[in-house]
Amino acid sequence: MELEGKRIVLGVTGGVAAYKAAGLLRLLTGAGADVQVAMTEAATRFVGPITFAALSGKPVLTDMWAAAADNRPMTHIDLTRAADAILVAPATADFIARLAQGRADDLLATLILARACPLLLAPAMNRQMWDNPATQRNLELLRQDGVICLGPATGAQACGEEGMGRMLEPETLQEALRAFFTPKSLTEKKVLLTAGPTFEAIDPVRGITNLSSGCMGYAVARAAAQAGAEVTLVSGPVARAAPFNVTRIAVQSALEMHAAVMKRAADADIFIAVAAVADYRAERIAPQKLKKSAGGLPEIRLTPNPDILAEVAALPDAPFCVGFAAESEQLETHAQQKRQRKNIPLIVGNLIQEGFGGETNHVVLFDDAGSHPLPVAPKTQIARQLLAHILALMEKK
Ligand code: PMT
What is the pLDDT of residue 247? Predict the structure, then answer.
């Protein structure tokens, strides 16, 4: 949604990671962006312009003089006037140095110098080149000029070395662009969340858990980060990557989730408890695997877990607290009862069959003013609507 109709110039410079730029281009056009590719001469030695032309559906710009000969002498100006952003991926050390000096010695550098839109760079280079003070100096200069630097990441490099300098993966760059285009309604806010199920061990291989996939909680974390918040996500065991710009703390049990949240709650502005926390855990975790015995069924005694949300809401300087309630019947009655019992201003009600798993949800927001049903929608969209409702309530306060 954030990339739909956005006009992006994708600059590709000469590094091995140029092949990943083709994947990025696919993701961007797939998300509805209108992408014009411009390559340096060196980039064309790594990947042919035909690949980018086929994926973008447009001729690739490589040569200033070719454009001029084609009766388009002002390509470098026209292009960026129409663009919403320029992203250079990969951005080599040499290209970064040229930008820092304000050079205009090829088409891509020229259109960047002549730009009237924001510039984002995804550096990619050998770790020594990245660590070189000259590269860091150049990047600092560019940052001072308002250029946004995405990555790089650390890991295995094309040269066989290991370290800082890998270009961010295409999916991560796409996420970063989405975040870039999202209005920053939560800047300077610290948001703490829980998501996913908890796993309460019974013995070394078995435990009590539930069907929460983490989809809803991760969607809220992602939307908050895109809106500019500093986000910490305390997550139960789920098979999901942490959203871009979100600090994830992985936990297993409710007690671990409780400890991780209580350590950070006093510092948060907003606490959103999306996790399906087990209400009970085994009183004693068997040190060895429980065996089938001839003498009848094994007995597992349960003991209650702490109520994380209620404890955070009871803190002297509590953050704005939001709960979720997954109910099998009487949604309004049960959700409102939970809201009152936990003493929180807002709870999100969903039916079990609609909330757990899946990419969509059907929720009703309950607050002091009553109930606010939202239409069935992808969890990503519900997350944005929920954050807007939270902000409106906080402003009223
Ligand atoms: O992860 P998905 O597959 O996308 O599914 C999303 C979801 C259905 C799990 C989510 O939308 C949801 O409804 N989460 C809350 C589940 C629930 O019913 O929780 P509860 O009624 O046990 O608890 C109410 C609130 O108190 C919740 O905000 C919960 O996080 C919190 N709680 C509960 C118990 C506990 N010990 N500590 C808590 O903080």
Answer: 98
